[in-house]
Amino acid sequence: MSRFRLDAHLKVLDERTVERAKSRGLDAVVYAPHFLRLPEIRARAKRFSDPELLVVPGREVFTGDWRNRKHVLAVGLSEPVPDFITLEGALAEFERQGAAVLAPHPEFATVSLEAHDLRAHRDRIHGIDAYNPKYLNQHGARARELAAEFDLPPFGSSYAHLPGTVGEVWTEFEDRLGTETAVVEALRTGTPRRVYHRSGAGHRLRCAAEFGHLFYENSWGKIDRLFLSGTEPTHPDHIAYDGRFDGVSVY
Question: What pLDDT does residue 216 have?
């Protein structure tokens, strides 16, 4: 029986990333960086896709403000959606576009959907991140509890911010999913899948490296975004959005 291995969420994409993905036996990855607009994500995904590896564009949208952050992963968007809009506004737009809507790292740190969010929006969410290398044991256990409580399909990803982490985790489908449309449909409809991850000392080291990178992101990286970099290209005030999201902007 043919199998299809998907790393459902990564932040980095270059030649090294692609080589690592192929060496780990992946068939596809979802490339969903922060603060990069959809046209650029799509262009990079197309550039690095080839017959051996499908790169599917995605957007992990930063809903809410810096004090009330909730990340939501959308796969299959056809039109750009900015950050810094309300959760309700983001979910409504994802639904309008027919995207697969996933809950990355639920109840993790201060940037995630919580149980009350999942309860309120259960019909608009298509999957829960059951495992990624930034999780400690309790995070994975809690994510699986939430998936069971709300009867949502699990998915797994490397959540790679570092190239070496790509392929440490994957979601395996029984059927071949050769196109972006097929991947989106499988994620949206709860197509049967299983979540796997590597083990051993090497995996533990990769997990530790990713967790360390999280500290950087929430210290110097956050300072840079808040005070040094100016307006993000995914801010709803950006000219690219033509004022369409003014009614749900939080800034």
Answer: 52
